[in-house]
Design a protein that fits this description.
Layout lengths: L29 H19 L6 H8 L3 H8 L2 H23 L6 H18 L1 H8 L5 H4 L2 H22 L7 H22 L4 H16 L12
């Protein structure tokens, strides 16, 4: 005697298709998970800022539980510090390369301006994070402190140029702050404007900086009103 299949045990007997098995999710290594969390945190910090971003939001967007975030970074402060350190290192590297002392001074100004704009274009989220103020950034480095370090490098280059033109080198530190600050603030403006093209912006920066530097007076003073 043939026993009819039970529809509850055999879906095919009831004319139902077997439910497909869900593909097993590939498990990330600890390093891959850490990088994924950093990418997620970087995007959120750039979009919302440090204070407005929560561990819950980071975990939800990364599709992990909150303990995973704490396990890797100890909290959003630890994650933010790592992100800021990476961005500072990346921007320092591109600017240091642009400030090679063997180049002609005008080429150095051109390279520095274009290097910053290149960085902003390719690392927009990172630059947004750097220019934002945060309690955590005070301990790990800020955009202003980075610009100060770059100005110190430029100071030596300007001092050599001043000496070759018979100008006093004591004002080189001040001019270095002016030059680097001008480029940095223009970069912050271009972050949102994105027009004109970065090469045109860099050309205008050099036009102002170089043509101004080319006509420096030994003892500048303001006219009496």
């Amino acid at each position: 005697m043939e026993i009819a299949p039970d529809p509850e045990l055999d879906p095919a007997a009831a004319g139902l298709r077997p439910r497909p098995r869900r593909a097993a999710r590939s498990r990330m290594t600890a390093r891959e998970r850490r990088e994924q969390l950093l990418d997620v945190g970087r995007a959120l910090f750039a979009e919302r800022g440090f204070q407005a971003t929560s561990v819950e939001e980071i975990a939800a967007r990364a599709d992990v539980s909150k303990p995973v975030v704490y396990e890797h970074f100890g909290g959003k402060e630890g994650m933010y510090a790592v992100i800021v350190d990476r961005e500072v290192e990346r921007l320092t590297s591109v600017l240091t390369t642009a400030l090679a002392p063997t180049r002609h001074p005008k080429v150095i100004v051109e390279s520095a301006a274009l290097a910053l704009l290149d960085y902003i274009e390719s690392n927009t989220d990172g630059f947004r994070i750097l220019v934002r103020d945060s309690p955590v950034a005070q301990a790990t480095g800020t955009f202003s402190s980075l610009i100060g370090d770059v100005a110190t490098q430029v100071e030596h280059l300007l001092a050599d140029q001043f000496a070759s033109r018979g100008l006093s080198t004591t004002s080189a530190p001040m001019y270095a702050q002016m030059l680097v600050g001008m480029i940095a603030l223009t970069g912050q403006w271009w972050l949102e404007a994105r027009s004109p093209d970065k090469r045109e912006v860099a050309a205008h920066l050099v036009n102002l900086a170089w043509n101004g530097l080319g006509q420096l007076q030994a003892g500048p003073s303001l006219r009496d009103r």
